[in-house]
Design brief:
Distance between the termini: 54 Å
CATH topology of the largest domain: endopeptidase fold (from Nostoc punctiforme)
Number of helices: 6
Order of helices and strands: HHHHEEEEEEEHEH
Largest sheet: 6 strands, antiparallel
CATH class of the largest domain: Alpha Beta
Shape: elongated
Strand order of the largest sheet: 1-6-2-3-4-5
Number of domains: 2
């Protein structure tokens, strides 16, 4: 089986941000580069809405078209939702950047539009980057724009299998280290095993810059030594 190309959510978001402001030409024609790439020819007319083809284009442009609906080409938000549900990639809460949120502007029925979540606000609303939207029409506005959508408009979201990026936590000072690890690290500092850099004359704690993984390893090592009677 051919391995799918992997990209991160941040890489997709960067590609999307670079497209903000792109418009169909002429207005109300659906003639836009995303459709041209999707259909393999220039198209225009009401039969070619492009909110989904914009999302497809982002994956295609990054060489990761198979991450979007398994490489299936569709211009339908309903098909996207069905794929996500079938492949256990459909979420309805705790949205996060990179989710492809499916939006409905009417009181019932299936999704009418799709957008790429760029940020989740504290009130639950979603900052998105969307194709074929605008002030005159949420779902057929003819431009790539940044929008803010109330959470109630979201039917759910398709979460592609992005490549995950490990983000290690670094503790700059002793006071930053979680309480359950701090006494051990403080003991190691007292006997000189760990030394600060002397950069904090105001007494807030010298910079030690230990990652969470380092703190855990040091703590477990000390506990192991103590278990065998090798006390510090």
């Amino acid at each position: 089986m051919r391995q799918m190309a992997q990209i991160t959510a941040d890489e997709l978001l960067a590609a999307a941000r670079a497209e903000i402001g792109t418009k169909e030409q002429p207005q109300n024609s659906n003639r836009v580069k995303y459709n041209t790439a999707f259909y393999g020819r220039e198209v225009s007319g009401a039969a070619y809405p492009w909110c989904v083809t914009f999302i497809w284009w982002l994956f295609w442009k990054l060489g990761a078209a198979e991450l979007f609906c398994g490489g299936q080409k569709t211009a339908s938000s309903g098909v996207v939702m069905d794929y996500a549900k079938k492949h256990s990639q459909f979420v309805t809460e705790e949205y996060r950047p990179g989710d492809l949120v499916l939006l409905r502007f009417q009181s019932s029925g299936g999704p009418q539009h799709i957008g790429l979540v760029s940020q989740v606000r504290s009130d639950g609303s979603l900052e998105t980057i969307e194709g074929n939207t605008g002030q005159d029409s949420d779902a057929n506005g003819g431009q790539v724009q940044q929008r803010v959508r109330e959470k109630r408009l979201a039917v759910g979201a398709y979460r592609p299998a992005y490549r995950e990026v490990s983000k290690s936590v670094t503790y700059e000072r002793l006071k930053d280290i979680p309480e359950k690890f701090r006494p051990t690290i403080e003991k190691l500092m007292d006997i000189g095993v760990i030394q600060g850099d002397g950069s904090d004359p105001e007494g807030n704690g010298d910079v030690i810059s230990l990652t969470h993984e380092q703190v855990r390893t040091l703590t477990f090592t000390v506990r192991l030594l103590e278990r065998f009677g090798l006390y510090l």
